[in-house]
Design brief:
Mean pLDDT: 92
Distance between the termini: 18 Å
Number of strands: 13
Structural class: alpha/beta
Shape: globular
Low-confidence stretches: none
Helix content: 25-40%
Length: 210
Amino acid sequence: MTKKQLTIGVLGFQGDIEENIAATRQAMEEMSVNGRVELVRYPEEMERVDGLILPGGESTVQSALAAIQRSLPVMKKRIADGMPVLGTCAGMIMLSKRAYDRVVGETRQKTIGNLDIVIERNAFGRQNDSFEADLKIDALGKSPFKGVFIRAPAVSEAGKDVEVIARHAGRIVAVRQKNIIGTAFHPELAGDARMHRQFLKMVLDYRRAK
């Protein structure tokens, strides 16, 4: 693969930031991609990246801080304009059009809204119900991918342009919509960079098309 300098941003307010940086760097090394990974928090920082990762963590905290820094509108516009984004767990909640909690019902959480899904927070239970499961994800090859589920959400409704790429126990746990990948699990904690490699392929395609 042609080496090309890329800049990948990881939303740096809260969550699995360092783990996503490490997984992205591993993917770059495996793919021989010349690039860098940096934290982004502010609108001007988000304007200069080629792709963005929204990490797992506390989605309400991340959304609130992004709203305070006026970063949500910039993310929304850049994603709408084609910039690839990977949202894991809390990150997928942030990308959704609507989120609710099976215990408290509808939330007032501000979301980015580019991903045409309705998402149920804590769909598999709370912290004590965290688990790992082998997932069949055709885009990542024949070997199963270890899904790490921590207070994981699930997709309850998906729009017609949303491709379901993984399920667990009958629930939708990973989707793709054009330049957006969303996972209910934490690929950054799997010790397996294949999901981040898939994301980097999208970023490379995006750069070539510009």
